[in-house]
Amino acid sequence: MIRDDDVRHVAELARLELDEQEFERYAGQLSTILEHIDKISELDLSQVEPLLHVLDLESVMREDEPTPSLSREDALANGPEVQDGAFRVPPIVRE
Amino acid sequence: MSLLGYSVLEAREKLRQGEVSAVELAEAYLGQIERVEDEVNAYLHLDAERTLDEARRAGEGDGELAGLPTAIKDVLCTRGIPTTCGSRMLEKFVPVYTATCVDQVTAAGAVYLGKTNMDEFAMGSSTENSAFGPTRNPWDTGRVPGGSSGGSAAAVAAGEAPWALGTDTGGSIRQPAAFCGVVGFKPTYGAVSRYGLVAFASSFDQVGPITRTVRDAALMFRFLVGKDPRDSTSVALPGKPQVPGDGSLEGVRIGVVAELSGEGIDAVVRRVFEEALAALEGAGAAIGEAAMPHAEYCIPAYYILAPAEASANLARYDGVRYGFRAEGAGDVIEMYEHTRGAGFGDEVKRRIMLGTYALSAGYYEAYYGQAQKVRRLVRQDFETAFGEFDFLVSPTTPTTAFALGEKVDDPLTMYMSDVCTTPANLAGTPAISIPAGLAEGLPVGLQIFGRACEDEKLLEAAHAAEQAIGFDAVPPLLAEVI
After folding, report:
1. Residues of chain B contacting residue A94, judged by C-beta atoms under 8 Å apart
2. What one-character-per-residue DSSP string does B190-219 give?
3. Which residues of B form the catalytic set?
4. Cβ–Cβ below 8 Å for B428 and A54
5. Which tens digits make up the pLDDT trace of B214-242?
6. DSSP SS3 for B91
7. What per-residue confidence (pLDDT) applies to A62?
8. Which residue, A87, B120, B331, B419, shows the most beta carbons closer than 10 Å to its own?
9. pLDDT, tens digit, for every residue of B245-297?
């Protein structure tokens, strides 16, 4: 069972503003989903290695050679608020 | 016969013989869109002028896909063409680059037809989670087309596109293909570059074709594959895949996955599935029973791992560099919270919450770590079964297409519609859904799983199975014009 406090904590971690109805709805729905997910605890997994990648790829390295990338103009093209060639955001540190 | 009645390969033959022009072909599809799109709502973006322009130009080219109109799921970036992912968050987003797979089909001469509707950020099994309204199933417009590639599947079924690109994270190509009576192919993980595919769950996401026939799927697949320096998880398959010729199922060992074919599968679906098996047996296949002992743990493992990856991937929607930004916030944290609260829809928020919870301190080992272990067990199940069988089969979905609104308020029930499809994503193996027949007027899909990196063999077998089954029904709104 996921508690109301947990839901609020998780929403804060995820930077999601939720209204009271959403908190209530997600608390109930997440509890139901997690109850089903808890089925995994039936299994003895103590001897099983986690599967990190389906293709068992080794670390993929390439030569570090500079190649053309997005122009500044393209990179800024979708910015909600652009000023002087940069993304403008509200204050980061409050007075 | 109307051009809409042809498979892509047949249409291409007509183009090559000069019996029709690329413009005529494009006009036929634009005409059907004009006629039925209000009912189906398969597309989020259409640009008839662009389509006709490209058809005019491509018609003169000699690319292998020259002049073939192609619909693209709106999760694939297209330079200069809006890419919304079915979300308010990206309503005004216009990519500055194009996905590798789209570039490759375009370079072969394919013509832009439109961007198709989808569940927001590919999260859902009904296309009801699109911020721009649901797509409707062409077989019965009171029902869902499946999801998340519901727009692509519905467009192909309704004759609004000869073929389409989709993406499959937990079944999002195969499940809508099954619901709409078309072919949907999820390749081996890594076979198709994910560069330019807007990420949902990166260790699962895979691009693939939705088509009317298996041979058409193989034709498109030829131009999707390849190792891409821009996607370090992409791999080169051995050789460029070929379009299968007339194959045979003689002596092919096919294992029916018991856990995905019995309990929990609707009786009407089971009946059509069994008829399809009889057809495969009639064509010479040796049918046996295969076991997937960890099948019942696939949904629990998938719904930890995929939301966990999603919660990390969707952190990028912060209102800074692209997409929606909520106005009036006092500081940057408030701006993030307002932007994400207002920009994301219900299911996306639910999955971000679920994934963030599963990754949060104190729960990581209990959920994420355990689910990764289950993932290994599922892959071992496949390896064991493939020791005994060449291919595995099951119904693609436990039910036929359900009614609009029926499951939208009950997430767990909605998640269970992925029960037969998630195993392939967990294990990374290729899988295809082909039409098996109709149950009470609605399509049923036969799913065939192949060995990892043996996509071409899977397509050969699926083509032979398709011939043995002989499904040729189309929904009424297409039947009346061909």
Report:
1. 330-331
2. TSB--TTBPPSSTTT-EEEEEESSHHHHHH
3. 73, 148, 172
4. yes
5. 999 999 999 999 999 999 999 999 889 99
6. coil
7. 82
8. B120
9. 988 999 999 999 999 999 899 999 999 999 999 999 999 999 999 999 999 99
Q: What are the structural domains, with CATH classification, of chain B?
A: 3-255+387-479 (3.90.1300.10), 298-371 (no CATH)
Our separate counts of H helices and E strands in chain A read: 3, 2
Contacts with B229 from chain A: Cβ below 8 Å: 62
Residue B102 vs residues A5, B75, B164, B207: alpha-carbon distances, Å? 45, 11, 11, 10
Measured CA to CA, the distance from residue B7 to residue A80 in angstroms comes to: 43
Task: Kindly determine whether residue A7 and residue B229, on different chains, have CB atoms separated by under 8 Å.
Answer: no
Enumerate residues 14 to 33 of chain A having a beta carbon within 8 A of any beta carbon in chain B: 14-18, 22, 26, 29-30, 32-33
Task: Name chain B contacts of A39, Cβ cutoff 8 Å.
Answer: 296-297, 300
DSSP string, B344-358: S-HHHHHHHHHHHHH
Residues 6+ apart with CB under 8 A from B389: B253, B254, B255, B288, B290
Q: What is the pLDDT of residue B428?
A: 97
Nearest residue of A to residue B205, measured between CA atoms: A54
Question: Does the ipTM surpass 0.85?
Answer: yes
In angstroms, the CA B28 to CA B40 distance is 17
Interface probe for A, chosen from B198, B305, B351, B353 (most Cβ of A below 10 Å), is B353
Compute the nearest-CA separation of A83 from chain B (Å): 12
**Residue B476 — pLDDT band, cuts 50, 70, 90?**
very high
pLDDT number for residue B445: 98
Confidence of residue A95 (pLDDT cuts 50, 70, 90): low
CB < 8 Å from B in window 53-92 of A: 53-55, 57, 60, 62, 70, 74-75, 77-81, 87, 89-92
User: Two tokens at B272?
Assistant: 């059509």
Name the amino acid, one letter, at B152.
S
Which two three-digit tokens encode residue B445?
Answer: 């899909």
All domains in chain A, ordered by first residue:
1-44 (1.10.20.60)
